[in-house]
Prior knowledge:
Blueprint lengths: L7 H11 L10 E4 L10 H11 L12 H11 L1 H10 L6 H14 L5 H12 L3 E9 H7 L10 E4 L1 E4 L2 E6 L7 H10 L6 E4 L5 H6 L2 E6 L7 H9 L3 E3 L1
Helix pairs in contact: 3-4, 5-7
Amino acid sequence: MLHPTLSKEFQDALRLALEHHCEDGGRPLAAFDADGTLWRGDIGESLLRWLIAGKHLLDVDYSIDIWDDYEHRVAQNRTAGYVHAVALMKRIPESQISSWCAQAAYAWPNYRPEMKGLVDFIRGHGVEVCIISASNRWIIAEAAPYAGFRPEETAGIAVEVRDGLLTETPVEPVTCNQGKVEAIQKRWGRRPLLAFGDSFGDKEMLEYAQFPFVIGELGKPDAPMVKLARERGWPIQLF
């Protein structure tokens, strides 16, 4: 059952969408953003701040404000900034990153039970589900089970791994903006029946889906994506 805190309008729109079939006749797909959608806050950025605070990053200049530099890069170019955040982990063993991410995902207090229930509801209607996130793929894979997904049902920003160590070379497509659409096409090979997102980093994915749904914050009713959703008549759920 859907969580009772989901609005009637949102639930009705979801049930109506589930009555439709995938355009190509295959199994329908539902694509979810992660940060700000399946949970409150940004788990990838939280991990980055922890890595900086503990001086776990290698080959970085700790005399500068690494976090401030990251935010500046994101403000200049969202995709490039997010890639930079993952590239900062270069030379760290993938096994170590996976271990840290498992701990961070377990400790993360911001999962939304309403969204996990929604994922379970959609899966129960025979729809395949996936996460397409601009956070690093290791943290998303570890957080996935707490949101109702299997690790293999996820895609996030990644860098190449050589000899067990992370490099700074990004793996294409980079899962932000149009890259989310490209990742869906490459990995799942079909247009989603449903898509859920909260920010302009999800805009292309929402436009690509047959039925887009927008998640927002109660304290931010005029957030850019919420305003766009109102203009386009997309269903909105505020938490």
